[in-house]
Structure formats: C-alpha cells, structure tokens
Write a structure and sequence with these properties.
- It is globular, with a radius of gyration of 16 Å.
- With about 200 residues, the chain is mainly α.
- The protein has one domain.
- It is built from 10 helices and no strands.
Length: about 200
C-alpha cells in the first residue's frame, strides 16, 4: 500500500504540464513543480489544472486502495488509508522520475487527508483561503494550513465532534512538519520580508 501510494503520488503533473507547453518548469520561477509555480510561469488556468491533478493523486489512491482494499485485508482501512496517504505525499515530494526532487506536498496532502478527515481539512482550507486573501502569499497560507489541519482534527476529536482516527491525527502532525521542512527557504524569505506574493 505504501508503494502503491508512492507510485501514484510520484506522477509529476506540474512537470508534465510544463513539457506540454515546451518548457521545463524546473528552470523557471521558483524551480518547483507545484501548482503555485505553474501558476506563476504558465498562468492561472494551468495552475488550477495542476492543483486539481495533484489533489486527485492524493484522493483516489487513499479512497480506492487504502480504504477500498484495506477494509477487505488484514491491515484494515485505518492503517491502509494512512499508509497510502504517506506514500502519496512522499511520492509527490520525492518522485523517483525527477531525481527525487518534487513539489512541497500541499495539494497532495490535502487530497489524501480529506478522505481520512473531511471536516478538519475543510476547516484548514478555510484558514488557507483567509490567509491567502489577506496576504496573497501562497507559502504563508500553506504553512497556516499545515498547522490548522492537525490542530483542528485534534480539537474536534477531543470535543467529540469528530471520529478522526488517532493514526490520522498523528499523520497530520508528521505531514505538517514535513511541509514546514520543505518550505524552509520560504520561511527564511518570509522572516526577511522577501517572499513572493501574487499582489500586483
């Protein structure tokens, strides 16, 4: 399940979209294959397509393999979903097809986690939207989401308003930490007031 998730997550949609437009997206903008850089280099339409595809490669493997196959196996749907989600996120961040240099994992993480914990992720997406609309800085909104997702899941679970599995909550904290690590250059620019934004 971990390997299946990795293979699905490693499909480099941003890179492929760049190739379809005759460019290597890794040589432009922030040199990242994620939706933000695709938007910056190729425009908002291609950026949205990239985000949607990266989102789907988190949703479908967890839903079909982790839950679908997991519930009929000894591993169970909870462990199955978590293992596939881990594989998807690692595949996106470290795709073997691109020398293990991929995206920062936000869209794929949201896709994988929304299957495992719907309402906490919806709350986190609202946080993303608010921070982005306020600052127009995608990296800051993504970092806020990385914090909001596990915190929302934990609070809802403790209040009895959600039955998110404890494995999933632990996974959320781990993914959040990885996202922060992947954004370490962005964090440095944020601290020095030099981070890119979509303000004109």
């Amino acid at each position: 399940m971990l390997l299946c998730g990795y293979i699905a997550g490693s499909i480099p949609f941003g890179f492929l979209i760049g190739m379809l437009n005759g460019i290597d997206i890794r040589k432009y903008g922030s040199h990242n294959i994620g939706a933000t850089n695709v938007t910056r280099v190729l425009g908002i339409a291609y950026g949205r397509v990239c985000f949607f595809l990266d989102f789907l490669k988190g949703v479908l493997p967890v839903l079909l393999i982790g839950y679908g196959y997991g519930r009929h196996s000894l591993i169970g749907s909870a462990w199955g979903g978590v293992l596939v989600a881990i594989g998807c996120v690692l595949g996106h961040m470290f795709p073997c097809w691109l020398n293990f240099k991929g995206g920062k994992g936000v869209a794929t993480s949201i896709g994988a986690l929304i299957v495992l914990a719907f309402w906490p992720v919806i709350i986190a997406l609202l946080v993303w939207w608010y921070v982005y609309q306020t600052t127009k800085i995608v990296s800051l909104a993504s970092l806020a989401t990385a914090i909001a997702t596990p915190v929302a899941a934990l609070v809802l679970r403790l209040l009895g308003w959600s039955h998110t599995h404890w494995l999933t909550i632990v996974l959320m904290f781990i993914i959040g930490a990885i996202i922060f690590w992947r954004h370490r250059e962005n964090i440095d620019r944020l601290l020095h007031g030099k981070e890119n934004s979509f303000k004109r």
